[in-house]
Amino acid sequence: MENIISLSNGKVKTVVRLQSGPKERKYLGRYVVEGPRMVSEIPGQDMDSLFMTQQFLHDNYKVDQRISNLIERAELRGRCYTVSDQILRKMCTTKNPQGVLATVTTKEYTVDDILNSPKKTPFILVVERLQDPGNMGTIIRTAEAAGVTGILVSYDSADIYSPKVVRATMGSLFRMKIATTFDLIGDIAKIKGAGIKTFGMHLEGDSIYRTDFTGPVAFLIGNEGAGLSDAVSRQVDGLLAIPMHGEVESLNAATSATVIAYETMRQRGMYI
Hints:
By secondary structure, the chain is of the alpha/beta class. It contains 12 helices and 11 strands. Helix 8 (133-146) runs parallel beside helix 9 (163-169) and helix 8 runs parallel beside helix 12. It is elongated.
């Protein structure tokens, strides 16, 4: 296990680059995960490198079995490093680092990977131009909880591997099939061609409580302020709205995705 003592170390600089923006993450094919809870959930085959303070190593090695397994995997690959508190703070985006971070290999899924999922009845979320990282992370986490097959994200949405999105997913990012697309309309056509009914979430749509979601379905969620673009709205089989009381004009994008995902789960009897 190598002990890194300099802020100018190349490995430290690489982590800082990965934290800086989507272009670096795309170019290097990696992203950063911070904190013991998230790090402990990383699938062993996906972890690239592990960095921790000596104190964290002392407190967790042979105590937390999942952390121990990751440390041993990283050591076998020669990619396990100890760093000072100062260096870890340089590498982290959180104000109070928790002693450990890891770099993880990105996954490049396509809409075909989602359509070829082994789940029997397709249940897809499609996200267009979503900008808020918190919303994106919440949608990813909700998708796993509600049994979503996969998520298709337009290229001009928030980067799914940004630090804020990664934190908000609370580990669901490791387990969900998420495809980024540069041809959203073309991929929507593929989804429809697979016999999946597509619905756009829209203020002028029909009530979600009067629509059947027990068959193959895909739900399109638009930008926080503008909603779905006209070009995308024209591609769907139907528009849906969530009924609301009072003077509320619309719901948060992540909230809308949660409501529709759980209504689908309810209709399919996927609840206890």
